[in-house]
Specification:
48% of the residues lie in helices and 23% in strands. The protein has six helices and six strands, in the order H-E-E-H-H-E-H-H-E-E-E-H. The radius of gyration is 22 Å and the shape is globular.
């Protein structure tokens, strides 16, 4: 005798509730880690090719991408984003002589000064006005170990492309952090 659809649906509901009942005690709430999202930088290959470079526009887009990532990570609850203002002088001093994503640990020093558990450095590689990559590297501040390196391709050097890449990067970072928890 075949069970009625209603009876089948009830049994499915009972099994789902039972499964969640067994799984819930094993779930634990994990506090999001704190993250310092440092200023983004650009590696512009077009300048070496003799192309005109609009530095003001590049700097504005770098800030926009950084701010999109900061806001997106905070909104998703993936991290608690720390304010970098208390270490602004240290950041500016370091950036005047070297790139933060190539400074051999200065990003960890900055993050420690800010009390962050994780530090994120970002940079854009501009191959041409059509081909760009938004890159991030994240490190655990206590151990200094790299915990994530991600790259998102951009097509077109315009605000829409940069915003889209930053939002995609937020999705990638948040997903990686949720898998860690």
């Amino acid at each position: 005798m075949k069970p009625s659809p209603r009876r089948h649906a009830r049994w499915c509901a009972v099994l789902v509730v039972a499964a969640f009942g067994f799984a819930l005690p094993n779930l634990r709430a994990v506090e999001p880690r704190s993250i310092a999202v440092l200023d983004f930088e650009i590696e512009d290959d077009t300048a070496a090719q003799g192309a005109a470079v609009d530095v003001a526009t590049q700097q504005r887009r770098l800030r926009m991408a950084r701010d999109e990532i900061r806001a997106g990570l905070a909104e998703r609850g993936a991290f608690v984003v720390v304010d970098d203002a208390p270490a602004r002088a240290m950041i500016d001093r370091r950036r005047s002589g070297e790139r933060l994503h190539e400074c051999n640990g200065c990003e960890l020093e900055i993050a420690r000064a800010l009390g962050a558990q994780v530090v994120l450095v970002g940079w854009v590689q501009k191959v041409s006005n059509l081909i760009l990559n938004l890159n991030v590297g994240m490190k655990d501040v206590d151990t200094g170990k790299t915990i994530l390196i991600k790259s998102v391709d951009m097509r077109g050097d315009n605000d829409v492309s940069w915003r889209r890449a930053a939002r995609r990067m937020v999705e990638e970072i948040a997903a990686a952090e949720m898998r860690r928890s």
